[in-house]
Design brief:
The complex is a heterodimer of chains A (about 220) and B (about 170). With about 220 residues, chain A is mostly helical. In chain A, about 75% of the residues lie in helices and about 0% in strands. Helix content of chain B is about 65%, strand content about 0%. Chain B is an all-alpha fold. Classes of the chains: A mainly alpha (about 220), B mainly alpha (about 170). Chains A and B meet through helix 1, strand 1, helix 2, helix 5 and helix 10 of A and helix 1, helix 2, helix 3, helix 4 and strand 1 of B. Strand 1 of chain A pairs antiparallel with strand 1 of chain B, so a sheet runs across the interface.
Chain lengths: ~220, ~170
Amino acid sequence: MEAGDLKKILETYDTKLNEKLSLNVTSLKSINLDKAEKNTQSILIYRIAEIVVFSLLTMFIGNYIGSNWNQTHLAISGIIVGVFTLIALSGSIGQVVLLQQIDFAKPIVDIRKKIELVNSHSLLFLKLMFLSAPIWWSYVVVGSDYLFNIDLYNNMDANFVLKYLMVNSLLIIPMVWFLNKLTYKNLNVKWIRKTIGFFVGTKTMKALEFLNDIEEFER
Amino acid sequence: MKATKKQQFIKTIDEHKKIIYKIVNSYCPNKNDRKDLEQEIIIQLWNSFDNYNSDYKYSTWMYRIALNVAISFYRKEKKRLVKSDFYNEESIFIIEEDTNNELTELDYHLKLLQEFIHNLNELNKALMLLYLEEKSYEEIAEILGITKTNVATKISRIKLKLKKEFQKI
């Protein structure tokens, strides 16, 4: 097919549309346009709810750290839990910022990226979950102290705690390496694709795949 | 005041109805879903109507919105809910469908071309539609948000693919 042939086909199609395409003004007028909502409205409500929850948790953790400042182990556990809560909170704030920037009148690639970053938000929680693995004891220490008033640390053998801390510290390096791999850029790697696919839903997976397509398109 | 705005909006839609029609047809192979996509595009256009930036042509603004909505629609899961009961008809339609069942060679080629566009991914589909509308590389780049060079490279690749497809006939 040469450019001339293509042009001929299109001209025929355009002529047909010019002749036969019509606008049903009555139908258009009947659309209750004023009731139209932004598509992003419901997601925005979810993300704002996340911000409220994480803000409350941050305040609670801050208060917990302050009240237990004299007991180093409780304060450190609280700080670790607090850091994770802050990461989750900043992730949700970032999502609200992205949602506010979504304007369909802007260039397509830019908007698609923002939309798919919103759709793939659950990957952040997956990463936080994995990153929590070496320090999961912080959650247990804080939880048992706050909920049941049991200080687990005081009931543990010092040697056990030391060994436990060493082993878990060693886990941090492979975990950080692993988390760096968990991105849409590595979806071509089978085990990464399977890991992400196993933990996040189809919607997130589709969003990540599309982010990959967008990057390819921009090249 | 509001009536004037709505009238102006309807006039704009009427002038550019071909854009909506072509995008809806390219992104929505299922005829039954077309009115839903058309509705979403019109609503989004209305929502953005006040913020129209006169630095751009109406058609550029319309393409961006319609393509963004169409891509979102296309990517939604199949289970689509009918969002309203006030909109049951297509607003933009062909007055009379061809009753003549005999396809001319041009019709046949047009069908092939449409099929080719259907099979492209979401972003390449947008690029191809804009190219077929004879938009300049600059305007395509502006609508899509990629560089002019990138537009040129991608179009030449798609054209090559299209040529191969038509050679199969």
